[in-house]
Amino acid sequence: MTRIDFDALFDGQRVMAILRGLPPAETVALAETAWDGGVELVEVPIGQPGQEKALAAAVEAGAKRGHAVGAGTVVSADHVARAREAGAAYTVAPGLDVSVLEASESAGMPHLPGVATASELQLAAAHGRRWVKVFPAAALGPAWFKAMRGPFPDMRFVATGGVAVDEVDAYLRAGASVIGIGSALADPAALAKLTGR
To answer: Are strands 69-72 and 41-45 parallel, antiparallel or unpaired?
Structure first.
């Protein structure tokens, strides 16, 4: 597997599909809906035991279409191992744990840590992160992104957690680069609005 570079992966993308807690067949079906609709980024969380089956199914489906799939809710070394076993191209976490970051990188999967404060952003930058997940984005609001772009102009933000489809543009204008969206992607009208298709 070619190692993922987040700059290249996220280039030109507005939305990341986050497919949480679905059986493997439903995960694949929704991933394919996203890919068909122009959403190339798919993350499958594996925070609960057994969810790596859905991840593995999405990875297999994505490989046939040239799409990398990431593992979400990776918060331990065990999660890193499960993500690697399922074939994830990268890992995503709700928080910043340097040991998890290092374990994922050592396993060949770039890591997208979660942040919610300036201190966490500074720590992420100190550990070579340019891209971070901002969680919970809806609780922090668009103003957070605008404020953080000042002291951290080189950081890139993936806004995740409660952002509604109608709020995506506001977050992008405020400084987010990519928005994480869940089951709303199953709605054709929402998908069209998100991708402009």
So the answer is: parallel
Query: Which domains does the chain show, CATH number per domain?
Result: 6-195 (3.20.20.70)
Question: Active-site positions?
Answer: 43, 133
Token representation of residue 169: 């543009």
Residues 129-170: pLDDT tens digits? 999 999 999 999 999 999 999 999 999 999 999 999 999 999
For 64-94, write each residue's pLDDT tens digit: 999 999 999 999 999 999 999 999 999 999 9
Q: Taking the C-alpha atoms of 185, 137, 45 and 158 in order, what is their torsion angle to the nearest 10 degrees?
A: 80
